[in-house]
Amino acid sequence: MRREHIEKSAAEIAAQVRSGRVSAAEIVEETLAHVDLVDGALGSYLTVLADAARAAAVRVDERVRGGEQLPLAGVPLAVKDNMCLDGTRTTCGSKILERWIAPYTATAVARMLDAGAIAIGKANCDEFAMGSSCENSALGVTRNPYDPARVPGGSSGGSAAAVAAYEAAVGLGSDTGGSIREPGAFCNLVAFKPTYGRVSRYGLIAFASSLDQIGPLTRTVEDAALAYDAMAGYDPMDATSIDRPVEATASALREDLRGLRVGIVREFDTKALGPDLDRIYRQAYGDLERLGAEVVEVSLPTAEYGVATYYLIAPAECSSNLARFDGVRYGLRVEGNDVRAMYDKTRAAGFGPEVKRRILIGTYALSSGYYDAYYVRAQKARTLIARDFAVAFEQCDLIACPAASCPAFQFGAKSDPYSMYLMDYYTIPMSLAGLPALSVPCGWTTPADGNLPMPIGLQLCTPLFGERLLLGAAHAYERATNHAGARQPVLDGVRA
Amino acid sequence: MASETIDIRYVAKLAALALTDDEVETFGRQLSDLLEHVNALSRLDIESVAATAQVVESRNVMREDTPRPCLDRERVLAEAPQRQGAFFRVPRIIAE
Predict the structure, then answer these.
(1) Is residue B49 domain-resident?
(2) Domain that holds residue B38
(3) By the CB < 8 Å criterion, does B86 face chain A?
(4) Is B1 part of the contact surface with chain A (CB cutoff 8 Å)?
(5) Site from B41, B42, B48, B61 to mutate, A interface, most A CB atoms within 10 angstroms
(6) What is the ipTM metric for this complex?
(7) What letter would DSSP give residue A66?
(8) Main-chain phi, psi angles of A261, to 5 degrees
(9) pLDDT averaged over chain A?
């Protein structure tokens, strides 16, 4: 199978399309042929938008010929299926929206398309973005391109698998407690959650509104920067989007870390992750120092309460947000004797177990008599966690730590809900504090229950609005180490 | 923090969620387990700490109360499970 163009980075594809050496139409044809070949086995996409992608490519080629300098000209894009794209099925991985056609386009998606990107398909995800493996999707299984016996991570697992397998050059994900960073780490990608409010949530179907944030999954840091630069900025359609100028990040990519202080978190002892991961992370911290950073120890004493805090706040917001799925205005309806029975039956039939669990937790935490003991207490813990970061950032410019506690696991390995919740142990604290954070590939390990090496991610994090520094530093690390380039996905193994 | 058996049927009623007997049993057990874990928060001294609802500055957003484009009514109603003319149709709410 010919993959002449689509293994290149988004930056390279866009440069070639802008120069006229290749057309967006050729990129789209090569991508669709490749998707056709591998996606039956991988399951990255729930919907492939072949006709729409071809039509969009014609328009992009016209714009290029017209002299427009599109930063993402012809770049194949995977859109997580919890983001609206006008006229396309948008399911959230749920039976309750299985046949719903979005009547408008999410701002983040619209900005990517305006920059020249071409939506190839809607990518699978855990139902309503609730999960860390994609196993909670009611509509399909997605496999990890580096070992099809393993999960791609989640909830943005379809977007991650698509980019890792060259079915797209950029994937859009949403991150509430780690849903971009964890699948990015599992699939050998750069996976970036911007500062809360930096990218509009308009058209992102809400899970937990005070935490949800859209960001890119890419094969290079430069691509993440290009995607962020295209998407970021104020949107009057999202009252929580931040009205302050965005500084371009693609022009701030660094080659070294001289003059920067990198904080290593005392409480995140990597010895607990086993000898292999401990070695990988120590090596990574050492590499940051060799790149010129001063490595200092910092403390996040409340971070260990992150998971407990998150699993009250996120379900509380979810129980409120998902109240809109009642069988009246859109999606599934199951008839009942009266309107109340219709609500109860529609929601029982439409939501899967994890969504029901979180609605129940959230409803309980918000219910009369428990509100102060659970929800308000969690909101106060959230204050302490954010304060920890503020104190830590008095001593450092960046924090470096693991993105996940293990590599991608096998299907069914985390059957106990709480063991799945712990997958977000290292990503939740940054989410609660609203901070920008990303995962960048930092090594490979062969799990005890497998024979294929799986990627590991290093998480970097800065204070609010530190995107330029964050992506700049990640670029220096990526250039110096190139762990991502060490292996290729096993696409031959998944061919039907 | 409270640690007691959850009346899962009552919570499900608040959440407008019909549960099977099996689900009542499973979710009840899983929620109790989760509450055991989140009860760790009672170890934090939070008496004088302010609650955080949102991490970045937020303010009321005002605009002139003038008409502006909105979603196309036909397209929105086309996605409704049941419609009648320009309306969403629902089961009778008020008794005859």
Answers:
(1) no
(2) 8-43
(3) no
(4) yes
(5) B41
(6) 0.94
(7) T
(8) -105, 125
(9) 97
CA distance A205 to chain B (A): 16
Whether B6 shows a pLDDT value over 90: the answer reads no
pLDDT tens for residues A457-480? 999 999 999 999 999 999 999 999
- The beta-carbon neighbor of B71 closest among A103, A337, A348 is A103
Residues 354-413 of A with CB under 8 A from B: 356-357, 359-361, 363-364, 367, 369-370, 373-374, 376-384, 386
Give the tens place of pLDDT for each residue, A290-311. 999 999 999 999 999 999 999 9
Per-residue pLDDT tens over the stretch A86-133: 999 999 999 999 999 999 999 999 999 999 999 999 999 999 999 999
Question: Which stretches within A115-263 are classed as H helix?
Answer: 157-164, 181-186, 221-231
Going from the N-terminus, what domains does chain A have, and what CATH number goes with each? 10-255+410-494 (3.90.1300.10), 305-375 (no CATH)
B19 contacts chain A (CB < 8 A): yes
Continuous H helices in A66-172? 107-114, 157-164
Is residue B23, in this structure, part of any structural domain at all? Answer: yes
B22 assigned to some structural domain? yes
Please report, for chain B, how many H helices and E strands are present, in that order.
3, 2
Suggest the residue from B1, B17, B84 to mutate for an interface test with chain A (most A CBs closer than 10 A).
B17
Query: Domain for residue B52, yes or no?
Result: no
**Residue A5: which residues within 8 A CB-CB, separation 6 or more?**
A13, A16, A22, A26, A27, A30
> Is residue A135 scored above 80 in pLDDT?
yes
- Cα–Cα distances in angstroms (integers) from residue A165 to residues A112, A156, A157, A171, A383, in the given order: 20, 14, 12, 11, 40
Q: Encode pLDDT of A319-361 as tens digits.
A: 999 999 999 999 999 999 999 999 999 999 999 999 999 999 9
Selection from A119, A170, A247, A230 nearest residue A12 by Cα: A170
In chain B, the number of structural domains is 1
Residue A493 in this model has a pLDDT that exceeds 70: no
Task: Using an 8 Å CB-CB cutoff, list chain B residues near A369.
Answer: 2
Query: In terms of residues, how long is chain A?
Result: 496
Residue A155 a catalytic site member: yes
* A417: chain B residues, CB-CB within 8 Å: 30, 33-34
B17-55 residue pLDDT tens: 999 999 999 999 999 999 999 999 999 999 899 999 888
